[in-house]
Amino acid sequence: MTLNAELRVTRGTFSLDLDVTIAPGEVVALLGPNGAGKSTALRTLAGLLPLTSGHITVGESTWDGPDAFLPAEKRPIGVVFQDYLLFAHMSALENVAFGLRSRGTRKAEARAAAARWLDRVGLDGYEQAKPRALSGGQAQRVALARALVTGPSLLLLDEPLAALDASTRLQVRSELSRHLADFGGHTLLVTHDPLDAMVLADRLVILEGGRAVQSGPPAEVARQPRTDYVANLVGLNFFRGKASGTRVDLDGGGGLTIAEPAEGPVHVVFPPNAVSLHAEKPEGSPRNVWPVTVAAIEQHAHTTRVRLDGPPDVLADITTATLAELRLRPGDELWAAVKATEVHVYPA
Ligand SMILES: Nc1ncnc2c1ncn2[C@@H]1O[C@H](COP(=O)(O)OP(=O)(O)OP(=O)(O)O)[C@@H](O)[C@H]1O
Hints:
The protein is an alpha+beta fold. The chain is built from 9 helices and 19 strands. It folds into 2 domains: 3-232, P-loop containing nucleotide triphosphate hydrolases (Rossmann fold, 3-Layer(aba) Sandwich); 235-347, CATH 2.40.50.100. The chain has helices at residues 38-46, 92-102, 107-120, 136-148, 166-182, 194-200, 218-223, 228-234, 320-326; strands at 3-11, 14-22, 27-31, 53-58, 61-65, 68-69, 77-80, 154-158, 186-191, 203-208, 211-216, 237-250, 255-270, 276-278, 287-299, 304-309, 314-318, 333-339, 344-347. The protein has a 6-stranded mixed sheet, with helices on both faces. The protein has a 5-stranded antiparallel sheet with strand order 2-1-4-5-6, with helices on one face. 34% of the residues are buried. The structure holds adenosine-5'-triphosphate (ATP). Residues 11-12, 14, 32, 34-40, 192 line the site of adenosine-5'-triphosphate (ATP).
C-alpha cells in the first residue's frame, strides 16, 4: 500500500506544488529552508489543511481529492510535533492511551497497550509521571509512543528532535532510527536539520519555494547537490558552469580544470578539504590555482573552515597546523589550489 500524494495548495501568495510517494516502511524526509512549505505539506497530509487540488491516496483509500476529504480524526496517522504537545494534566500513560481511547478502545485495553509502548521506548516506571516532570528526551519518547500506539498507516514527524540539546539529540536520534526501522507504515519527517534527515531517512525530498528541487537517497543528494541550498546543507563547494573538454567556465566568474572531459551546462562540486591554501602561488602542478581573499574563519570541532572570496568563492577546511603556519586573518590574500581529480562534475 503506497502513499501517493499530489499536494497542491494556495495560501495567499504562496503555492505548494509537491508530489510525494512513500512506500510501506519507507522514511521520506522533507527538507528545506524556512518558508519552503514543509509545514503546509505536513498539514495537508494530517488533514488539517484541505488541498486546493491534487489528491492523497493510501492504497485504495482516498484521504483528500476532488470528491473526498477525510478529516484529521478519521485518518490513520500518528504525529510527533516539535514541542510534543503532551497534555500537561495527564500522566505519561494517559497521554499515550489517549489516542486509543478517543478511537473507542476500552480503558483497560488502552492502558495496557500504552504501558507496553512506554516500555518499548525505555520509559518503564514513568507511567504516572506528568509531562513537566519529564526531561526533553523523555517527553519526546512519550510523544513517539503516543503517535505509534494506534498502529498508524502514516507517521508524521515535525522537527521531532529540534527541542533537544545536542547530546540528548544524538541519543534520541539513534533511538528514533531504531523505532523507524521497526515501523511498517509510511513515515514523513519534516526537518531543516540535514543530519536528522541523513540519518533517519531512506529518501530526501528537498523543498524550496513550494517546489521539490531535488530528491533521492541521502548519499546521492549529498554527492550531487543541485542547488546552493543543498550544497550548503551538505557542506560542499558548488558551482554551475559550462564545460568544454577539461575546462569549465563558471557562471559566477572564474574557471576550473577537470580531469574527465565534459560538454555543456554542468554542476561542479568538491569538498572543502580538497582545497589547499598557500601564501605564495604554487608552481608546476596540474592544479587549479587562483587568488583568493579571506572573508571569514570559522572554528569547527576538528578543523578550521575558511570562507574565501574569489572568483570563484570557495570554502576551505584546513588543519590547525596550516592555520598556525599561515596566520590567517580576514582580508588576507592567498592562493587556493584544487586538484583536477578532486573536482566532481555532472550534467546540470
Ligand atoms: N495561514 C496562512 N495563510 C497564508 N499564508 C501562509 C499561512 N501559513 C503559512 N503561509 C505561508 O506559506 C509559506 C510556507 O510556510 P510553511 O510554514 O509551510 O513553511 P515551512 O517550510 O514549514 O517553514 P518553517 O521551516 O519556517 O516552518 C510561507 O510563505 C508562509 O508565509
